[in-house]
Design goal:
By secondary structure, the protein is an alpha/beta fold. The protein contains 23 helices and eight strands.
Amino acid sequence: MAGKPWKIIPRPLLETVLNNHAQHHRVQQPLIFHGPRGVGKTTLILERLLGDWNKGPHLTGYVDFAESIKDHHPRFEQSFPWASWSNCPQPTLLDCRTKLEQCLESMAYQGVKLGGISSQQVFSTLNKWHGLSTALSRIIRSNNASKMAVSEKLSKSVLWDRAVFALSARYNAKEIDGILSLDEKGKTLSIEEASYYREAVVALQLAKEVIKVQLEWRGNAIANLNRTGGFSRSLANSCTDWPCLLLELLSQAAEIDHFQPKLVINNIDVLRNAKLVEGETSVSASMFHDSLIWRIIALGANEKCLPVILVTADSYYSYQAYLDFGFIDIFISRETFGWTPQEAKLHMVNDYFSNSEWAIIDEVLGPNPRHLFELYALKQSNSYAKLMGEKNSTFEDIIDAYLAYLQITVVNPAMDRAMELLQKFANEARNGKFSKDRFRFGAPWRHPPKTDDPTLRFEWAKIQLMDFVQSLINAEFGINYLADCSLEILDDPSAVALIEVGLLYSQREPSFVRPISRGIQKCLVRWLVQQRMQMSFGNILQYKWQRIIRGRSYRHLMLQIGYNRK
């Protein structure tokens, strides 16, 4: 058992479900693969599925929007955060757009190499959604040294051919051959074939330039939209025209046993929360995110789309996103919670932990795969050997050390962030940004501070958060938010704050709000005890008054009988 390398354990049922979806060349709905943090979603995709999804006729584009957060990504020898990505420095929308577009462009070039995407297809698809005459005329003039006028009587197809010819002069033939790897098989391609492929690549570049020109024409309107905070579907769609055009071309080119592209987008929630750089011609990140997903849904519903899999640990995508985008089954939902305790014991005992060690782990941390991996790594470290060498040291000491690590590096910073969100809520409530129904009679958060006093807001936020954690403990850490069809728990600003920072997870089936793992659950209890010990006498009285007079009680939304919280 000592020093045994960690292995990726197969999950046959979940892998079969995802494989069945990915094996189709076109589908009607995108799939959301979601679940709490640490249950192995990214590991399953990268280590078990992605390799097979790039064999034979299959081609899979993989985009991880979190790669731009270098301080919290394994690609840069860091680890994923336990709490939400929203607690990390947010990447720019430009970085996220570039990653997505580069991935789709490389897939489109593969489609060109296989003869699935031609210049005529690019033109007909682009012409279906865009007026081309003015943009093509401008591009032709900008690439024409003599700057001669272009006749308005020319048809769009003639303008397209001229624009492709004009743009071809700008590109080096070797550069295009490098994109398509034509130089590797130049001996087997005729001049006509090579010209056909090169024309398709130039057509893609021309389409990109047409969309860029049309986006520039809308620049002032988009800037005004961002200033006023309004909404415009047409302006949002203009920012997603290029990736959605590529998705449509790839979907049209998909053919069973010849070219079966698919797209996996990991950490889609990072795109939704990305920041907009000043001067960038784009709508806000949330509007870009919504437009992209809307158009994927529309493409699938109207013409069928290549398989798109969205991977996330954000609770928004377990229930609320389905309602925001139309109805409860608008996406295919695949939710995972990792191993059951019995499965984890089967894989862990004897190979990584003894029976006595597992009994402690199961009680304190639960079967969360990431907890188990981090604990095993700690067990193999020199610190563990040094600790176990001390007199009267036991395995419980290493568990305590790991919980202290989670407390200091994960839970305490996340709770501080949650208190900031509650203070923001109190300030917005004072400014009248919420309806009166949000503060109906009996709501524990009904009376936030009415004065602009940061100290009062902080104390109110802290008492609210402590009250909620205590009510969560009383409800045995499981609240069924659909139990009485009222969704009342989702009106609670404390619940919303803890879900947003990633310590609670709002799962889809069954519909419970609960801590993301038992280890985090233990740390929440420790946080409450610590806060109560540090309170002044006056704050203790305020807290007691809150609990007795206005305190939360969610026991009527407790877990269903027989549901195994492990």
